[in-house]
Every structure is written in structure tokens, then in C-alpha cells.
Amino acid sequence: MRALVYDRYGGVERLSLTEMPRPQPGPGDVLVEVVATSLNLSDWEGLRGSPAYARIGGLFRPGRPVLGSDIAGRVVAVGSGVERWSPGDEVFGDNLMRKGGLAEYAVVPESALARKPAALSFEVASTIPQSGAIAEQAVALAAPGTRMLLNGAGGGSGSFALQLAAAAGIPLTAVDNAGKLDLMRSLGAERVLDYRVDDFTRHGPYDLIVDLVARRSVFAYRRALAPGGRCLIVGGTVRTLLRMLTVGALAGALTGRRLGVMAVRQGPEHFLPLAERVARGEVRAVIDRVCPLAQAPQAFAALGAGQAQGKIVIRVAD
Q1: If DSSP codes are grouped into helix, strand and coil, which group holds residue 30?
Q2: Has this prediction a pTM greater than 0.85?
Q3: Which of 304, 132, 137 is nearest to 210 (CA)?
Q4: What is the tens place of the pLDDT at every residue in 142-170?
Q5: What residues are paired with 70 via a beta bridge?
Q6: How far apart are CA 221 and CA 60, in angstroms?
Q7: Are 258 and 229 in contact (CB under 8 A)?
């Protein structure tokens, strides 16, 4: 099968298109012919090997040579014990622990997959699992009227979260680069900020801050929170994560402002509700571009540079 592989951490120059053996499903596994996969920040981190937690499973070299966790495709074969899926079923899911979506075939645990709604194309379905789960859980933290700020709002998770917040009556301030301000307004943001010229932690106060690209100090986040407010980060540097779990917890206890890390729950039950809303036309998947597998390195470069508005999708097969 064709696959985009890498054997060293680094930039897009580490990626190469090559032939490799088709994997075989083990007990409880499903072999999926990948039609489309969408890129996530976790894929960029896996390519770079940074932050340090991106090296779990391979400290000096990648433990898995093929990136791509959000996949949509057709079941080709199933391993022993699999009763839910049969060859020909159209499925999608987040294969975060095994990845492999940037190849013509990927082995996925049966529990990670959901049946693709017929109304969704494979490209659209591939945008939902990881980003949709993050968006749903972030917006669920806010009640109608909550003053919410979302940093990194012009990417995959943010583009879903903005629409969910607007539908729920949550006034949301969206932060990203200048190239995404119009998009964020169109998706329902009440206010938009360009992080390159405006420090969002000097605005507010906010009842809820969710940071998808966390790099700020604990004290900067605290400054932007209203009394009783809450700030949660998703990803970010190891330093920021550790400080939020230690200094942030202490500062929150002393000031009545809660700071911490959002533990994102994975699995179909956490992304299927959004997929159904997209299928009904209530929410739209924002796709920046659809590229063939051979152009995936250029797509990674755009993702890493923060240029993608919404999701970048890689079309692997017909």
C-alpha cells in the first residue's frame, strides 16, 4: 500500500511517500481502507516530536511511522471477536493511539469507530472525530450567557466550537491570527482578536477561557478571569501544562479562579452528536483544502504555520 511515512522527528522534509506492507487486523481490530483523513495539531506535534509528550511510544524515533488519526473509509476485513462491523461498512473515527491514516489502509480498534452518516462525505466525516469531541466538551463547560474566550478558534476544533457556542447563546470572544478573523465572525464569534497584536489576557474579565494552543503564564490567565471564573488548556507546551497543574491549582485555590487542564474524552459517543448535527445541516465543517496524499507535506507545512482555516483534509483513496 502507499503510505506517507517518517522515521525521524523534524519538519516536513522527514515525510516521504513510499510502499509498505498492508497491515492485518488482530483480535478486536478492523482493517479500514482509508478514503480521507484530516490533520490535527496532534499530527503536527507527532511529526515534530514536540512537546515532549508527543514522543510517547518513541523517545528518539517515532514509534509509529504513519501519522493521521482522524480517518473515514470502508471496512475491508475484521479480526477475531469483531461482531459490530462487516466488510463494506462506511465508518469514521479517531485512531489517536495507533494513527496510520496517511496510508491506504489502517488498523483501528472496533470501539474507536462509528458508522458514517450517509449524508456526510468521507472528507467531511474525517474532520469531526478529534476536533468535534474537543469542541463539544469545551462548549459544554459554558451555560448560556457565560462570557467565554477561545484561543486558537480559527482551526478545526475552534470552527466547530464557535458554531456550537453561538447556537447555545454563549457570547464568545475568538482569538487567532488576522487571516482568520472574518471566518470566526462568520461562525458566530461576538468578538475577535488577533493574538499577534492584541494580548487577550489583558481583556475580559471572562467566566471561561479555553486555550487550544496554550503558551501563556498562569498569572496571565488568572488576570483575565472573573471571580469564580475557570481556565482550561488543551495541549500546549509541557512547561505550561505542568504549571497549570501545580501553580495554577494553588493560585486558583487562593483566588477563587480555577485553572487546569481539560481531559478530553475520546470515542464515538463524544463525536457522534456533532456528526449528526453536521449531517442535518445545523453545523458546518469548515474545510480549508482537500489535498491528495502526495501533497500532504505541503499541507503539514500550512498546518504548522497556523494558516489553515478550519480543517485540512487529505484524500487518500477514491
Answers
A1: strand
A2: yes
A3: 137
A4: 999 999 999 999 999 999 999 999 999 99
A5: 38, 94
A6: 33
A7: yes
